[in-house]
Amino acid sequence: FACSLDGSAFSTCTSPKAYSGLANGSHTFQVRATSPSNVTDSTPASRTWTVDTVVPDTTITSGMSGTVASTSASFSFTSTEASSTFACSLDGAAFSLCSSPQSYSNLTNGSHAFQVRATDAAGNVDSTPASNTWSIDSVAPDTSITSGTSGSVTSTSASFSFTSTEAGSSFACSLD
What we know:
Blueprint: E1 2-5, E2 11-12, E3 25-32, E4 45-51, E5 58-62, E6 67-68, E7 73-79, E8 85-90, E9 96-98, E10 102-104, E11 110-119, E12 130-136, E13 143-148, E14 160-164
């Protein structure tokens, strides 16, 4: 037998023939037999495969941020390897197959975390999933006037103090 890897010159070999330390990319192995009467096979047997040890990198291209009032969320994502499949996780749940865009509805108030990871065609899994955190606050604050002018008064000035049930609220006032 004579073997060739990736177009190199054929050299004597025995079965099985093993290779190690192969670089990422496409490889082609060829083998041909020569008979005891010195006649060589003119059509070598051939096998082609691809070595892929590169882990894909997952990126969230759009999603949620900060504090929002919506109880729905949508995320778009991509991978550095075009043939990747994806698995998503919301709020620490087990990863499950998903595709971009991934949407959720009827989410509860509070903090949320979305994660997504790519798996390439060779089975390499992104070990550092892309993540996105945000909060939902769909409950309107309750405004109270804590002090101020009321009833009939003789003053042409008025002053009011007010508060909200949610810290950090902004206020809008109207007179008459």
